[in-house]
Amino acid sequence: MVRIGPLELGEFPLLLAPMEDVSDPPFRAVCHRNGADLMYTEFISSEGLIRDAHKSVQKLDIYDDERPMGIQIFGGEREAMLQAVDRVAQAAPNLIDINYGCPVKQVVCKEAGSGMLRNLPKLLSITADMVRRSPLPITVKTRLGWDEDSKHVVYLAEALQDIGVQAIAIHGRTRVQMYKGQADWTLIGAVKNNPRMQIPIFGNGDVDSPEKALANRNRYGVDGIMIGRAAIGYPWIFREIKHFFQTGVHLDPPDTAERIRTCLIHFERSLQWKGEKLGILEMRRHYAPYFKGYPDFKEYRMRLVQSPDSHEIRAILNEIDQQYAGFPLQAGNPAEQAIEN
User: Fold this and answer.
1) Which of 63, 78, 198, 305 has its CA 20 to 30 A from that of 285?
2) Plot region of 287 (φ>0 → left; ψ -120 to 50 → alpha; else → beta)
3) What is the C-alpha to C-alpha distance for residues 10 and 138, in angstroms, rounded to an integer?
4) Domain shared by 235 and 265, yes or no
């Protein structure tokens, strides 16, 4: 049984990675329905929280039907991070996650996200203060290091455990790599198999099929796998991995009717969360991934992203359901572009 503090996650949990502009409550709802065992909010700026910025505060929204949930925060200033812990705890998630992995320039230049990997003493000092401050378990998401010459993740994981961090998720790239090349799980395995490590270690990077999930579990011994880009437009990946683990065979991929049902659940939750106008806008980035691989789909996609009316969008989805009824698909449908935090 994998545990983070008092939270029990099963024998081999599958985690939904925090992704900016993706991992909102509507998206999390469909991932939870399809087998995600632990999910996180989009990452939240500590500075934004303490300034009461609307976008940052709204990201604190979590719902009972998506638990267990972690709220992820980032920042480079000690006092802002400590005050953010207080604010996040009031939202009552199951845990608080610290982002030391985001590679984007706007975050790194503030010595936040993976920018912290250039100053490990500061990273550890701030994290220790946050652990002492928090009434909830503190976890961390990070990378192998800043660049090829500073892959210090084995040392960092030991040090984080020593100051009270209760789980670590590791993305198998350096900051310099961004999302290019292939994720290297070798050092993730070295962290997990370090005899000093007692806390759960989750691997992250390039898992987009049941076969890859099983290979990484068996080869590197991780306690669970975090999935990001492969879940965009394909939340069924969680249940497909679990089925493959249990049976050794592939679960049939979702047909058009199931894709439409799931897309509609996502759409309705988006309207409920953001309201009609913003809900429609927020949903537009998801249509292409949901129907990736469908022939001659461009016209439908354009109509979906251009329509400002929820009734019309529902009608278009119904047309798609009828037009592509029984359309055969291959298992798996990973999205190509997304930013994991």
Assistant:
1) 63
2) alpha
3) 19
4) no
Biggest CA pair distance of the chain = 59
Count how many residues are written for the chain: 341
Bridging pattern class, strands 138-143 and 38-40: unpaired
Instruction: Quote the CA–CA distance of 267 and 313 in Å, as a whole number.
Output: 9
- Give the pLDDT confidence of 271-313 residue by residue, as tens digits: 999 999 999 999 999 999 999 989 999 999 999 999 999 999 9
Per-residue pLDDT tens over the stretch 144-159: 999 999 999 999 999 9
Q: Annotated active-site positions, please?
A: 102
Range of the domain at 294: 256-323
**Which of 158, 205, 156, 155 lies closest to 180, judged by CA?**
205
Residue 50 belongs to a domain with what CATH number?
3.20.20.70
Map residue 204 onto helix, strand or coil.
Answer: strand
141 with 262, same domain? Answer: no
Structure tokens belonging to residue 192? 């997990």
- Alpha helices (H) along 193-332: 210-220, 237-247, 256-274, 276-283, 287-290, 298-306, 310-323
